[in-house]
Fold each of these.
Amino acid sequence: MRFSRLYLNRLQNQPAHEDTVVVIDVLRSFTTAAVALARGARAIYPVDGIGVAMQLLATLPDSLSVGAVAGGDPVSGFDFGNSPAAMEQADLRGKNIVMSTATGVRGLQRFSRARALYAASLLCARATADAIRAAGADEVCFVITGEWVDRDGDEDIACADYIEALLCGETPSPESFARRVRDSDFGRRFGTAAHPRLPVADLELACRVDRYSFAMPARRDGGRLVIRCPGPAG
């Protein structure tokens, strides 16, 4: 199995279609998505842009909106911000979640034609590795979405390192990767007075390595990307 890395913030042109692509957004899109599925959401529809999200919400039954703009502030008028802690307290049974975020969702859309596409965070990292191995992937490309001019993105790089180590048959210590999330540029902003929209509860949830036993494959359905939990929550 061969591995590569791409950084969403550095991509200039449309990349070639890859064999297997793992789009990582630990803080917070795909931590939020994993919690939503575990809380009973029927499906998550990742859409690029608030306008597209509003159009889909108008036609999709039993739907709720989740989203944030760059920097983490919630989208005005949406039901939820991009907060896994908020998802943890919500009854989402049978709901369709329309999600629009600044990085993770954009990464999925950018690679929507990959042979196999996964949304990933530490909560479902081992399950993602298991799904990739079971599918017999030859090449795996990790897309790092959290790196920006003022962010090192190490929360996502740590997740990629962990999944790659598992795919290589290693037995890495989960806590060392959770520590990197906390110590990343973005991780250190959570729970501070300067960033009231970044609660420490979100950070702590993002550090729960392998909390769930499901992966989050993103597939096309009726022309739209959709993430459905393929099995019971762990």
Note: DSSP finds eight helices and eleven strands in the chain.
Amino acid sequence: MPEVVLRAAEESDAAEMLALYAPYVIQTTVSSEYEPPTLEQFLGRMRTYGERLPWLVCTIDGEVVGYGYASPHRTRAAYQWSVETSIYVAQEWHRHGIAGAIYAALFELLAMQGYYNIYVGITSPNERSMKFHKAMGFIISGAYQESMYKFGQWRDVLWMGKSLRPHEGEPQPTVPFPEIKDSPLVARALRQAEQRIHL
């Protein structure tokens, strides 16, 4: 049986993660970038977001086949309990539950950290992504009409959101992911999420 591992990303994974991400930039409207970032730019993102938020990779027999991460939704103080998420899976590994496993882990980890809301922007049309996110508990929050121009066309971006906890009382400060990364609770959440992957 192949060895499937879902774990926190390390800087040594960056080159494989970038190689997986680049086709999404070059060939699709899933990414709003025109050119793939350089390795140094990609590492910069990992370091910046990773100071507070989780980056996860899924490996099969040691090869990175998917990754996902959270980033700030907005930068002003009142938005600090909301994040955006992005997940990318290698084309040949679609439909094996990898994206769902990464999301399941992110939901648990972000909740542990004290976050309340997750948002995702989906370039329209993308019925497959919408259906997947609905299955993961997201609901439609709104849309930015004709806000993105790529491949010679203006495109809408649909926003979907998911609550991680009841919105009751005053929220407490969130805990940076590096402070809990090596805890047994995080290890258990990752192992449980791994069970969603089927080969």
Note: The beta strands are 4-8, 55-60, 63-72, 82-89, 117-123, 139-150, 153-163.
